[in-house]
Amino acid sequence: MKELLCRVEKVTSARNKDFLKALDIYSKNVPNNVKTEQNQLSQYVTKKYGKNKREMVFYVLYVGNTVIGYAEIGVLFTSKVFFIDYFILDMKKEEKKISLYDKKISDSFVNSLPDIDRILLKNDFDCQKIYITSNEGKTAFITLDPSNRIIFVYNDIVKTVGDYFLSQASSLQEIVMPSVEEIGEHFLANSALLREVKLGNMIWNGDCFFDEVTSLTYLLEQFRQGLPVDDNLYSCGGNSNNGFSYSKKIV
Questions:
Q1: How big is the chain by its Cα radius of gyration, in Å?
Q2: What DSSP character marks residue 12?
Q3: 43-64: buried (b, 16+ CB within 10 Å) or exposed (e) per residue?
Q4: Tens digit of pLDDT for each residue in 206-227?
Q5: CA 243 to CA 154: how far, in whole Å?
Q6: For the chain, where are the alpha helices, taking DSSP H only?
Q7: Do the domain assignments include residue 1?
Q8: How far apart are CA 182 and CA 177, in angstroms?
């Protein structure tokens, strides 16, 4: 399979056809109340507007030879502020997916977010939040710490979780999945900092989840309070340090 290379090109002409395509992406994705007129943006490129107050630079984003995005950065001369005004990607529906950077890692997290309609990134002080909306209008969001480690997960999209879900998320502190019903093996296996788990409708679980979680006593009580009375929660391998398993009790 031929690889498609991503690239970025600086806009030098307001009449550049790819810049016009990028402006179309800008126009379709930015709300009207914060949108700058396209004619004004073109005047920034030609240095006919605001040249004494600010310097604006525009970029076209590509995958292969296809225009997929628009970026705009600027510098305010008086306040000496550098800012990224817009960074917009217009992805086709089938391209909106979460994938692992290392294909050797086994993690069902990527499968818990199917049929993505929209992905939004937002800075929140030192952290970054990723908001994901499904085609059915359900939501998920992930909070990353300043080192881009996952610390919080909310997912109202997934009902069935496979094996090794976020098994490498060692910095995860809290997870909320109101609609989950089934969870596979080695769930949050290395989340040693985990302090709160909310799984609204869980009815079945695999083996050895919370393998390395140090606060198992607290979490175990959380699970016991939320489990049906006919269910069993027991230590994996007879050792609470190896996590817990959950099985449906047959009566």
A1: 23
A2: -
A3: bbbeeeeeeeebebebbbbbee
A4: 555 665 555 555 555 656 555 5
A5: 22
A6: 17-29, 38-45, 216-226
A7: no
A8: 11
Cα dihedral 15, 16, 20, 22 sign: negative
pLDDT digits (tens, 9 = 90+) for 27-48: 887 777 777 888 888 888 887 7
Cα–Cα distance, 184 to 127 (Å, whole number): 29
- Both 102 and 166 in one domain: the answer is yes
DSSP 198: E
Cα 137–125–81 angle (5° rounding)?
Answer: 110
Q: Are 112 and 202 within one domain?
A: yes
| Structural domain count, the chain | 2
Q: Whole domain around residue 206: which residue ranges?
A: 94-248
Phi/psi region, residue 35 (left: phi>0; alpha: psi -120 to 50; beta: rest), is: beta
| CB atoms inside a 10 Å sphere around CB 109 | 22
> Which two structure tokens, joined as six digits, stand for 171?
């910095």
**Is the whole-model pTM more than 0.90?**
no
CA-CA distance, 234 to 237, in Å (whole number)?
A: 9
If asked whether residues 196 and 217 sit together in one domain, one would say yes
Co-location of 145 and 74 in the same domain: no
Query: How far is Cα 160 from Cα 108, in angstroms, rounded to an integer?
Result: 10
Task: Report the amino acid identity of residue 23.
Answer: L
Same domain, 152 and 188: yes
